Amino acid sequence: DICNPCRSLEQCIEWAGRISEEYFAQTDDEKRQGLPVVMPVFDRNTCSIPKSQISFIDYFIMDMFDAWDAFADLPNLMQHLDNNFKYWKGLDDKKLRTLRAPPE
């Protein structure tokens, strides 16, 4: 999971969708069974996938990959990370909650 933001954009989008669906299903099951919801942000009716990706990158990925890059020189991964962050930020700036912008 942690390498996803450093993949090519299309792979990043694909896997962000897959992991989001996994978390949505977990939240659905917890609600259906009357259990405490572990990750309420992953309610499929209210979740912003771009916001979740931005938060994941900000809180977990950026500093870790900056450190790895300083140690191992990972320019391709860092370029993907930058491009993907900008992609998610662009969707969030447009107030979109989905994996992709609708066709124009």
From TrEMBL:
Swiss-Prot/TrEMBL GO biological process terms: signal transduction
Keywords from UniProt, A to Z, are: Hydrolase, Metal-binding
Listed InterPro entries: PDEase_catalytic_dom, PDEase_catalytic_dom_sf
Q: Report whether Metal-binding shows up as a keyword of the record.
A: yes
One Gene Ontology term of the molecular function aspect: metal ion binding
Q: Does the keyword Protein transport apply?
A: no
Note the superkingdom of the native organism.
Answer: Eukaryota
Q: Which residues form the PDEase domain?
A: 1-95
Q: Which Gene3D superfamilies match?
A: 3'5'-cyclic nucleotide phosphodiesterase, catalytic domain
**What name is this protein filed under?**
PDEase domain-containing protein
Native source organism of the sequence: Micrurus surinamensis (Surinam coral snake)
